[in-house]
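Narrative summary of target 7.
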Amino acid sequence: MLILIGYLFLKFKSLQRKLVDVSYDDVKVITDTLKDLVVESEKVSEKLDISIKEKEALLEDLVDLIDAKLKRLEQLGSANTVNIPDTNNVEDSVSLSFNNSTLTNKTGNFDLSGMSLKEKVVFLSQNGMAPVDVAKRLGISVTEVNLVLKHGR
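Modeled conformation, tokenized:
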């Protein structure tokens, strides 16, 4: 926006020098140029508004996720292990341990120790798991998985 203002100022200064000997055609050219600049600045302004609204929506989603995480941490308290049953098979459950980050399911073992949550989401997704399954396996929401896959790579 500052660049546009600077550009307009320079154009104005150059027009001011030309006003010494100005004809009607010159004024028409100047007017058309200024109209084009105003239209261009409006387009830039609209793009900025759209970008700001998208960023605000993303921030709102992140705030909601942080609130959900805080509630989940409060519920967990000092527990070290979380068991999440698979809805397809009650016997097939996933055990997440904060000390041992190995996931086991009926499709195989994945050693995820030393990986951040983001890396785990990307790894499991790249290995064919749907976002819903990744969320179940890691004990996070599908929205969190989608945010990592969309913005985290």
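The chain has five helices and four strands.
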